[in-house]
Amino acid sequence: MRRLGVVFSSRVDSIPEPTTSAETTTNPPSTSPAASGQPADASTGQSSQVVQNLLAERKARLDAHKKEQEAQAKAARQADAQVRKEALEATPDAQKSADMKYALMQKKRQQEARDERARILKRVEDDKAERKNREAQRKARSLAKDESQTAATAPTSIGTSSANQSNMCAVQVRLFDGTTIRSRFPADTTIHDVVRPWVDENIGADIPYNFKHVLTPLPNKNIAVSEEEKSLRSQGLTPSATLIIVPVQGAISAYGM
After folding, report:
1. What would the pLDDT profile of 230-253 be if each residue is shown by its tens digit?
2. Euclidean distance between CA atoms 250 and 209, whole angstroms
3. Do residues 216 and 231 lie in contact, with contact meaning Cβ atoms separated by under 8 Å?
4. What is the pTM of this model?
5. Sheet strands side by side (includes 221-223)
6. Which of 179 and 254 is assigned the larger pLDDT?
7. What's the Cα-to-Cα distance from 31 to each of 15, 20, 95, 171, 226, rounded to whole Å?
8. Residues 124-144 as b or e (16 or more Cβ within 10 Å = b)
9. Could you give the count of Cα atoms lying within 13 Å of 204 in the half-sphere of its Cβ?
10. Backbone phi and psi for residue 209, each to the nearest 5 degrees, phi listed first
């Protein structure tokens, strides 16, 4: 051993030092198969065998986990299909009832919409009719006012041929309070039949009175009660005439004077 140590020492001293650190790090004596005293082929074979065993074990675990997941998914699908099947088989009446309820609701909504549309159309027609009626009344009042004004401004001629041929008589009457009312009557009617009831309706009071015919610029003419039975034409009230109501002398106190 001493001799071998001397030999090795002399040989180590004669070996030159490495030129670069890369060479030393590339082949470290402690990791080489020759320094460990084992053959390189045996170590490599053992390492590859270990790796293969690990890969096989991992593959087995993955395959088992995959099969388990597939089995669970298949069971879940089967359970879901069974639930849907049972639901469809168990609730046909409920589905039918729901469909009928929905159809009734739709029908009710449609009927309400039709009723609302009919109500709106009726209201529009009523508004149109009301506007038309108001317009007709306005035109009638305007026409009556124009005719009354024409009759009031037109001269009253007694015994003329135009008056005898007129079929209508425009009459305006001055009331107790100074207001004037106007209307048109057939020339063949009488004061007693048409004029006096019309005046009574507008006075609204039970006051005896007589009529006086205004004949400007001629003197006014009192119309006796017996003359009220004569036609308007025969009394010369056509085509227009202005009358004044005069309270009866015995009823002056009741009139409020």
Report:
1. 999 988 888 999 999 988 876 554
2. 10
3. no
4. 0.35
5. 180-186, 168-174, 240-247, 209-214, 221-223
6. 179
7. 21, 19, 80, 146, 162
8. eeeeeeeeeeeeeeeeeeeee
9. 2
10. -155, 165
Q: Which one, of 233, 87, 238, lies nearest residue 156 by Cα?
A: 238
Between residues 166 and 59, which one has the greater pLDDT? 59
Q: Supply φ then ψ for residue 89, to 5 degrees.
A: -75, -30
Here the tokens at position 179 are 């207001």
Q: Give the bridge partners for 243, in sequence order.
A: 173, 213
Residue 256, both tokens: 């409020």
d(CA 82, CA 240): 102
Spacing of C-alpha 236 from chain mean position? 65
Burial 61-87 (b: 16+ CB within 10 A, else e): eeeeeeeeeeeeeeeeeeeeeeeeeee
What residues have CB less than 8 Å from 238, skipping those under 6 apart?
A: 163, 164, 166, 168, 169, 187, 232
* CA 67-71-72 angle, 5° bins: 120
Coil, helix or strand at residue 185: strand
168-193: average pLDDT: 91
Closest CA to 185 of 212, 161, 167, 159: 167
Is beta strand 168-174 parallel, antiparallel or unpaired with respect to 240-247? parallel
Reference 153, options 166, 172, 139, 167; nearest CA is 172
User: Which distant-in-sequence residues (6+ apart) come within 8 Å of 210 by Cβ?
Assistant: 222, 223, 224, 225, 245, 246, 248
pLDDT at residue 112 tops 90 = yes
Average pLDDT of the chain is 78
The CA distance from 175 to 184, in Å, is 17
